[in-house]
């Protein structure tokens, strides 16, 4: 459970520096606890990766966007652009149709 809470904390959109320092001490203790439970053959470089992830979060900030594949980030950007343009064209269409409607009423 401690490891899942660790990943929930570092994947949040806002990570404070003093919170990262507390997470550093907690993850080291958690990995030591895992070392007491599992045999040493269980541990390879991936089990020590959370320690380095904290350094990355401390240097570069929140990591939830950096963990996305580049095409996922582009999909989000494209979706936002499409929504903005569709809203712009909808407003433009409604404005023009209202303008035409008022023009025809003035002529009558």
Based on Cα principal axes, name the global outline.
rod-shaped
Number of DSSP strands? 0
Q: Mean of the pLDDT scores?
A: 76
Helix proportion: over 70%
Number of helices: 4
Q: What's the gyration radius in Å?
A: 26 Å
Cα separation of the termini: 74 Å
Strand content: under 5%
- Unreliably modeled segments: none
Number of domains: 2
List the helices and strands in order. HHHH
What kind of sheet is the major sheet?
none
Structural class: mainly alpha
What would you say this structure looks like, in words?
The structure is a single chain. Helices cover 74% and strands 0% of the residues. The longest helix has 38 residues. Helix 2 packs antiparallel against helix 3. The chain is rod-shaped, with a radius of gyration of 26 Å. The model has no long low-confidence stretch (mean pLDDT 76). It has 4 helices and no strands. It folds into 2 domains: 67 residues, no CATH class; 40 residues. With 108 residues, the protein is mainly alpha-helical. The N and C termini lie far apart (74 Å).
Write the layout of secondary structure elements.
Layout: H1 2-10, H2 17-37, H3 49-60, H4 70-107
Helix pairs in contact: 1-2, 2-3
Brief digest:
With 108 residues, the protein is mostly helical.
Overview features:
single chain; mainly alpha
């Amino acid at each position: 459970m401690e490891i899942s809470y660790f990943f929930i904390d570092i994947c949040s959109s806002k990570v404070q520096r003093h919170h990262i320092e507390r997470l550093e001490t907690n993850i080291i203790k958690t990995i030591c606890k895992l070392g007491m439970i599992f045999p040493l053959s269980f541990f390879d470089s991936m089990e020590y990766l959370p320690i380095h992830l904290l350094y990355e979060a401390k240097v570069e900030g929140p990591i939830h966007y950096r963990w996305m594949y580049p095409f996922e980030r582009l999909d989000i950007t494209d979706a936002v652009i499409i929504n903005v343009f569709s809203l712009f064209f909808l407003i433009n269409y409604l404005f023009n149709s209202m303008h035409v409607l008022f023009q025809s009423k003035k002529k009558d």
